[in-house]
Amino acid sequence: MLADLTADRALTVVRAPALPDAAALCRALAEGGIRTVELTFTTPGVLGHLERAATVEGTNLGVGTVRTAAQARDAVNAGARFLVTPDVNEEVAEAARDLGTPIFLGALTPTEVARAAALGSVAVKIFPAKAFGPGYLKDLHGPFPGLPLLPSGGVSEGNAREFLGAGAVAVCAGTSVVPPDTVAAGDWADITTRAARFVAAL
């Protein structure tokens, strides 16, 4: 999981009021160069979307905004290959260990980052990254050298390269690549174009 993410340097976080065809979305993103896709529990019917997209070849499909162990188990049963939390959630981390599923725990402060790493986070998601900027990742790598950090929130093609330069293992692409309205409309050609533009900016 981490090897693929490091190679691509990006994953896409999808939040949308509706998702007409999750498999088509994954194929559109992969065509644009982003193979790791995070659907979220904020999207209605996310478990069904996971089931429909889980067999898309070449896509690493996971789920985010996981808040409970039950959600973690349901997501993995539906086909999720990794889990993401918005916080340092010990319940979900324990479930991920039991399931043998990679997890990215959300953190911000040095104390939270250390706790997330201790709980087995494959990479620690730094959220909201835009609040402190790329320099904050460089600061975190002082006491935590070599710890994989994954900035999320406010990352765009305009600043993604700076985050990578500051030591991020990869970056999370959000609404700049998958605008909710565009996803809901099923405009897959536009999604491919946006993904390709984001990857080119890296």
UniProtKB/TrEMBL annotation:
Q: Which keywords, in A-to-Z order, does the entry hold?
A: Carbohydrate metabolism, Lyase
Signal peptide location: none
Q: Entry's Gene3D superfamilies?
A: Aldolase class I
- The domain of life is Bacteria
UniProt pathway: Carbohydrate acid metabolism
- Assembly and interactions? Homotrimer.
Annotated family: Belongs to the KHG/KDPG aldolase family.
The name this protein goes by in its record: 2-dehydro-3-deoxyphosphogluconate aldolase
